[in-house]
Amino acid sequence: ILSYGAKPDGKTDSTKALTAVWAKACASVKPVTILVPKGRFLLRSIVFDGAKCKRKSVTVRIQGTLVAPSDYRVIGGKNYWIFFQHLDGLSVYGGVLDAQGTSLWSCKKSGKSCPSGATSIGFQNSINVLVSGLTSLNSQMFHVVINGCRNVKLDGVKVSADGNSPNTDGIHVQSSSTVSILNSKISTGDDCVSIGPGTNGLWIENVACGPGHGISIGSLGKESVEAGVQNVTVKTATFTGTENGVRIKSWARPSNGFAKNIRFQHCVMNNVQNPIVIDQNYCPGNENCPNQVSGVKISDVTFLDIHGTSATEVGVKFDCSSKKPCTGIRIQDVKLTYRNKPAIADCSHAGGSEAGFQRPNSCL
């Protein structure tokens, strides 16, 4: 990108240079690599659209740091800071995305009128995507979004934002199939990973979460007609000081949404407020849902080998829908303690089986 006028000083706007580089890459019939060398490159909101490209595959190697403008208003009204779409065979290696979101968080906390903020990097309507070794710092809103994609692998991704930063989900997946999130460390102010409607075939392994709100399926059932979530595995995850551990949540209102064939296994909880949660009475601010029940059907969910400490006495909470009770919930080898005593379980409208579950009270 240097040969297209980008300067690694963190002050010169490199957006035009990157736009020109993309146009050149897009017109190439040969395999092409875009190189962002060492240094800090100032970048405004940019879209890399492969719809009209001769080749739909491209490699982006980031050795330096892409930095957003310090004035949050420049990109704050956009959906995305960096956005890739209509690609097949996109690889993004290394690098740091510094969205400088702290001033927008302060604005939001002050109660002033602020833009909602941009997601740092998004991938949409693409297949065969690899993101390896990327670091996202201080996003305005979400850090990484995968939407409408197939066959996506995120490996060695690092996400970092303050534990009090608002709406800074680490990795959000929706309307996508065959996605894996591996060997990643996520510290942020909202869900470490959030899993939205239409996700089918998500594998999360060797992920450290904290601070943050845990790994959450949902919120589901916001819409009355909604794609379900199925075939999700979370394996070998560590949660430290998080608000939740593993969670499924749905709005308390009618919907045809569902979550099925979900597996949480080999998880360690370190001082987690709500280690295991199914919440089907999600109704923030008690608006649009009071006195209603969730229509989302949750079935075939396994919690296997989950150990550690709860920061509250309730280690397992299943608050399922009275209209569509949870079925096929399996608990095996779950041992959670609160102040050196077994944490308790609090369950309603949940059915299934348990083995090796540390009493004092049975749940299913």
TrEMBL record:
It comes from the Eukaryota. Keywords: Cell wall, Cell wall biogenesis/degradation, Glycosidase, Hydrolase, Secreted. The active site is at residue 213. Coiled coil: none annotated. It is found in: Secreted, Cell wall. Its main location: secreted. The keyword Amino-acid biosynthesis does not apply. The keyword Secreted applies. InterPro entries: Glyco_hydro_28 (IPR000743), PbH1 (IPR006626), Pectin_lyas_fold (IPR012334), Pectin_lyase_fold/virulence (IPR011050). Belongs to the glycosyl hydrolase 28 family. This is Polygalacturonase-like.
